[in-house]
Design a protein that fits this description.
Layout (H helix, E strand, L loop, with lengths): L11 H9 L9 E11 L8 E14 L2 E13 L7 H23 L1 E2 L2 E2 L20 H5 L10
Antiparallel strand pairs: 1-2, 2-3, 4-5
Length: 149
């Protein structure tokens, strides 16, 4: 297996922002950087993924069993970038937004079932909103014409 390699200076500016960040702490959320976290474990994925990682921990009621409180870590690979403070701050804001999107997908229920359940399985992005249409939806053009296949 060929491994990917990337290098960049240590993101001191990002580390400073994370250290000063306050986000939903009263609700049990935590945010930190891990310099060498194993994000994907061999055997469950196509290979190991590790490196500098932003960890956003959401602590609260389990979406699927609300009587139970759980802590879930969301892992985001830190890009090998030389961003300025404004760009790192935006990147940090965006990653937290992805966690919020994931939670919204789990909590948005129609008739008691998630309308947009996140894909949690290996290889899937748990932040991709999946809307399943019918085969007829797929074959209908923008003009309303139904194609054969």
């Amino acid at each position: 297996m060929t491994l990917m390699h990337q290098t960049a200076p240590y993101p001191d500016t990002l580390a400073d922002l994370v250290g000063r960040l306050s986000y939903r702490e009263s609700e049990g959320w935590k945010v930190w950087l891990d310099d060498d976290l194993q994000r994907d474990k061999p055997g469950r994925h196509t290979g190991e993924s590790r490196g500098m990682t932003l960890v956003v921990q959401r602590c609260g009621p389990d979406s699927y069993n609300p009587k139970s409180v759980i802590a879930v870590n969301h892992y985001f690979a830190v890009p090998p970038a030389t961003y300025d403070a404004r760009s790192w701050q935006w990147w940090l804001f965006e990653q937290i937004g992805l966690v919020e999107l994931h939670e919204r997908m789990e909590m948005f229920l129609i008739d008691g079932k998630p309308a947009y359940p996140p894909a949690h399985g290996p290889g899937n992005s748990p932040y991709l909103v999946l809307a399943y249409g019918t085969d007829e939806d797929r074959r209908t053009s923008f003009r309303g014409e139904l194609a054969d296949a």
